[in-house]
Amino acid sequence: MDISKRIAEMKKQPGFQDNVGMILIHNGVVRSWSRKDKSKVKALEVTPDLAKIEALRQEFLQRDGIFDIVIEAKSGEFQPGEDLLFLIVAGDIREHIKPVLAELLDRVKAEAITKKEVIIG
How is the chain split into domains, by residue range? Predict the structure, then answer.
């Protein structure tokens, strides 16, 4: 995802200027080590449930102050350093936006993404 391009597109939407005071972004990348035991990771196999991700996006769009949410979850095998998951949350004030980004990220990862680490050795 070209984050700057997606934000520029979002800014062209009717109502953006009247409703947005903050945009928060999550850019998840593959780590070279396992969270579990710090083993070296060669690759990460990722399968997103796109229907569930869209359902979560629709749910969180209903929260107070949220103007728009963009989610891109990649599928396949990825190497350390490669991008996996993008979330862009735009809305009125930080008290609304910060908790939505945090909760949405946690729910997408827990409910809509399956991943398997390919360990070196």
Answer: 3-119
Structure tokens at 15: 């109502």
Question: Which one-letter DSSP state was computed for residue 7?
Answer: H
| Per-residue H/E/C for 47-63 | EECHHHHHHHHHHHHCC
Q: Are 48 and 107 in contact (CB under 8 A)?
A: no
Contact between residue 86 and residue 25 where contact means Cβ atoms under 8 Å apart: yes
Q: What pTM was estimated for this model as a whole?
A: 0.93
Contact 73, 40 (CB under 8 A): no
Summarised one tens digit per residue, pLDDT across range 8-31 is 999 999 999 999 999 999 999 999
Identify the CATH number of the domain defined by range 3-119: 3.90.1170.40
